[in-house]
Design goal:
With about 150 residues, this protein is an alpha+beta fold. Helices cover about 40% and strands about 25% of the residues. The protein has a single domain (about 5-135), classed as Gcn5-related N-acetyltransferase (GNAT) (Aminopeptidase). Helix 1 packs across helix 2.
């Protein structure tokens, strides 16, 4: 199965990417519910990303259309140096384990290199072992911990 990575086209792709959002967020944040309001905000964020030169969304196309995407953001670190953020990465379950995420990550890293970024960072939920394994295999390391405590 071959995939082609291309730039996000808002009118063509937005509904498909929005359809990926519930699984993306509900998998990574147990108990999270992708409400219609949340999806509406995501639709607006994608519209803004399509217009923002500091953001790039790439879509992985399979034989019948989009099977995944990566959302990239250019940032400045605390020293004023450019760095990249992988704001989101998603691959449809039927396409997982076929190299799609690796291809999207490689394209993202190349994009960041072309902008002179010195590092790339991302957040991943500790319980998402498959994603953690992917990122480790690509050379990513843990640099900080985010901790949470439920309040009753």
């Amino acid at each position: 199965m071959t995939v082609v990575v291309r730039r996000f086209d808002y009118p063509r792709d937005v509904e498909t990417l929005i359809s990926f959002m519930p699984e993306l967020y509900e998998t990574n944040f147990p108990g999270f519910v992708a409400t219609p309001e949340f999806l509406s905000r995501q639709r607006q964020r994608l519209r803004e990303a399509a217009r923002d030169p500091a953001q790039l969304v790439l879509v992985a196309d399979g034989s019948r259309g989009p099977v995944g995407f990566i959302w990239l953001v250019l940032e400045l670190d605390s020293r004023g140096r450019r760095r990249g953020e992988v704001a989101a990465l998603y691959v449809h379950p039927a396409w997982r384990g076929k190299g799609v995420a690796r291809k999207l990550m490689a394209e993202g890293e190349e994009y960041f290199r072309s902008w002179g970024c010195h590092t790339v960072h991302l957040m991943v939920t500790a319980s998402n072992e498959r994603a953690v394994g992917l990122y480790r295999s690509l050379g990513y390391t843990v640099t900080r911990y985010q901790m949470e405590k439920p309040l009753r």
